[in-house]
Amino acid sequence: MHFSLKLIGEGKTYKEVQKIIGCSAKMISNALKWRAKPETRGRKRKTTIKMDRRITRMAKAQPMISSRMIKDSLELPVSTVTVRRRLCEANLFTRIPRKVPLLKKRHVQKRLQFAKEHINWPKEKWRNILWTDESKVPTPPSPSHWYVLSISATSSICRWYILCRGLVPP
């Protein structure tokens, strides 16, 4: 704190402070007006922290949603570019989704054949079956007009399923 401000704060008049310090009244006036301002650079943000959280939450809940749809549904007073910037700050980047290969006719026929062979099994026997399916399917990149909001891109899909009912593992 400036010495003249301290003296004024103690109840001294401008004239008394002038005599003590040996300066002009204008210098004391300027010292009273002066306030330390926090260092700011650039333009103020248009979105608040709360808005940023809402944008991120919506994008994580619906990865296929566009920045325009986020802006319109949340009624944000910013551009779609600003929405995209906030998503990038939250490490949510747009990626082209991979196409998942569909089941081939051979796979469908084998599954149908298995179901027909075991259609007459009693429920007790089905309850002791442990179903597993694990497969890693490489997916080639394909151009698309849809984008997904994700943290990182993957080049293959690994699926692993296990279904069991009434079966105690060893």
- As a percent range, the share of helical residues equals 40-55%
* Distance between the ends: 74 Å
- What's the Cα radius of gyration? 34 Å
Domain tally: 3
Mean pLDDT level: 79
Order of helices and strands: HHHHHHEHHEEE
> Which sheet architecture does the biggest sheet show?
2 strands, antiparallel
Protein name: Transposase Tc1-like domain-containing protein
GO molecular function: DNA binding
Domain Transposase Tc1-like: 52-120
What does this structure look like?
This protein is of the alpha+beta class and 170 residues long. It folds into 3 domains: 3-33, no CATH class; 49-91, Arc Repressor Mutant, subunit A, CATH 1.10.10; 105-164, no CATH class. Helix content is 44%, strand content 14%. It has 8 helices and 4 strands, in the order H-H-H-H-H-H-E-H-H-E-E-E. It has helices at 3-9, 14-22, 25-33, 49-61, 67-74, 80-89, 105-117, 123-127, and strands at residues 93-95, 130-138, 148-150, 156-164. The protein has a two-stranded antiparallel sheet with strand order 1-3. The radius of gyration is 34 Å and the shape is rod-shaped. It starts with a helix and ends in a 6-residue tail after the last strand. One of its GO terms (biological process) is DNA transposition. One of its GO terms (molecular function) is DNA binding. This is Transposase Tc1-like domain-containing protein. Residues 52-120 form the Transposase Tc1-like domain. It comes from Mola mola.
